[in-house]
Write a structure and sequence with these properties.
The protein is 58% helix and 7% strand. It is mainly alpha-helical. It has a 3-stranded antiparallel β-sheet. It has a two-stranded parallel ribbon with strand order 4-5.
Length: 401
């Protein structure tokens, strides 16, 4: 019920915003009044703050509900929105002025950044305060940078933001360094990403041309996943089918995004996303489940199994070599921040296991105990790497599918 109320309130807030935006674009007097209200909010006006608090509560309640569905561990305590830095903006501006970094430019307060000069040698201009007294994203981002460095003691700060914000982030980083808001040893990184496109090659929209909401995307994914799960395993109880469908749907949504090269645009395709074939989350989840079923049939606890690995077949060698790459891949992804590299590795690992399983029987009668134990050990390690990799991607595995 709380989630439904948050959704309804958010819808009201969205309608309010859309109407206000139209008024802002069409009515200069309304636009001036809106700008004045922003200045009042940033200055701590009680009435403006009270309204702002209502809007924040509605948004946060909705987001927390989505986080829960996505199995994301963020809580209300982790939320620090742009407006949370309002009280820091004025002191920060004074600090920048005292450092002689700020200049007046047609009534506005700006920082000229020589390091980002254009081809004509003109410095990049970063507006810190508008002529009407209002602060901008740049000021807030500097305050956030200062908070993350001084209060959170971060030694690496990563921004996953649209590629179109590249210049803005360069300005923030340069100004932050000039103002000593972060120590020289703190790494500041902007990792841009592309756009999710529809099959028509245009930004993904609803049939009516509106923005696709994540909540609606999750609902449709669950419906599609439930149909697929029931068709593959009609003997599942209704409860189990829904639980598996939820995990498949959420995993599919996450993987569809994370498995694409982050900086590239990609095509959103329902049929490709929720499929048990190819480089998809359901395929990897199924591979992990299949490995666990081997131990279940053998009545062996994989955690307690241990054996020396003996390589006699080429598919065993391929799987073993792929297993040895896991730590290297994790280190690479942590440095480069390209999760698709991990996704590709997990797909290659699952494929290597399937090839191994097809050519190297494990539980068949006549297999020597030495070979059986060795192959079980390879299977155990494959399941561990798969489940660990999927967990790092925020994707759940399950004992049955």
């Amino acid at each position: 019920m709380a989630g439904e109320q948050a959704e309804l309130a958010l819808s009201d807030l969205e309608t309010f915003y859309q109407k206000a935006k139209r008024h802002f674009d069409d009515d200069p007097e309304f636009a001036d009044h809106a700008r004045a209200l922003v200045v009042r909010l940033q200055s701590g006006d009680p009435q403006s703050r009270a309204l702002w608090k209502q809007f924040i509560d509605i948004s946060v309640a909705h987001n927390l509900e989505i986080y829960k569905q996505l199995n994301v561990s963020l809580t209300k305590e982790d939320v620090k929105p742009e407006s949370a830095y309002n009280d820091q903006l004025e002191p920060l501006l004074e600090e920048l002025v005292q450092m002689n970094l700020v200049q007046d430019d047609q009534g506005a307060k700006v920082i000229f950044i020589d390091e980002l000069a254009n081809k004509k040698g003109e410095p990049s201009v970063m507006i810190i305060r508008k002529s009407d007294g209002g602060f901008l994203y740049a000021t807030t981002d500097l305050a956030a940078l200062q908070y993350r460095s001084k209060e959170l003691k971060a030694d690496r700060i990563l921004y996953f933001i649209d590629a179109r914000q590249s210049l803005h982030m360069k300005q923030v980083f340069c100004a932050g360094r000039l103002a000593n808001l972060v120590p020289p040893n703190v790494s500041l990184e902007h990792h841009p990403f592309g756009t999710m496109m529809g099959k028509d090659g245009k930004p993904f929209k609803t049939r009516t041309g509106g923005t696709v909401k994540l909540a609606h995307l999750i609902d449709e994914a669950r419906e599609r996943a439930e149909q697929l799960v029931k068709s593959k395993n009609p003997n599942l109880s209704e409860r189990d089918a829904k639980d598996i469908a939820r995990k498949v749907a959420i995993g599919a949504i996450k993987y569809a995004d994370l498995s694409k090269t982050r900086t590239h645009d990609y095509i959103f395709d329902w049929d490709e996303m929720i499929s048990f074939e190819g480089n998809t989350a359901p395929y990897l989840q199924y591979a992990n489940t299949r490995i666990n079923s081997i131990f279940k049939r053998a009545q062996i606890d994989p955690d307690s199994h241990s054996a020396t690995i003996i390589i006699t077949e080429n598919t065993e060698k391929i799987l073993a070599l792929k297993l040895l790459q896991f730590e290297e891949i994790i280190e690479q992804v942590s440095l480069d921040c390209y999760p698709h590299v991990l996704c590709n590795y997990l797909y290659e690992l699952a494929s290597a296991f399937m090839g191994f399983y097809e050519k190297c029987p494990i539980l068949r009668q006549g297999i020597s105990k030495e070979k059986k134990d060795s192959r079980l050990e390879l299977a155990k390690l494959a399941a561990k790497k798969l489940s660990c990799g999927l967990d790092l991607l925020g994707i759940e595995v399950m004992p049955t599918m």
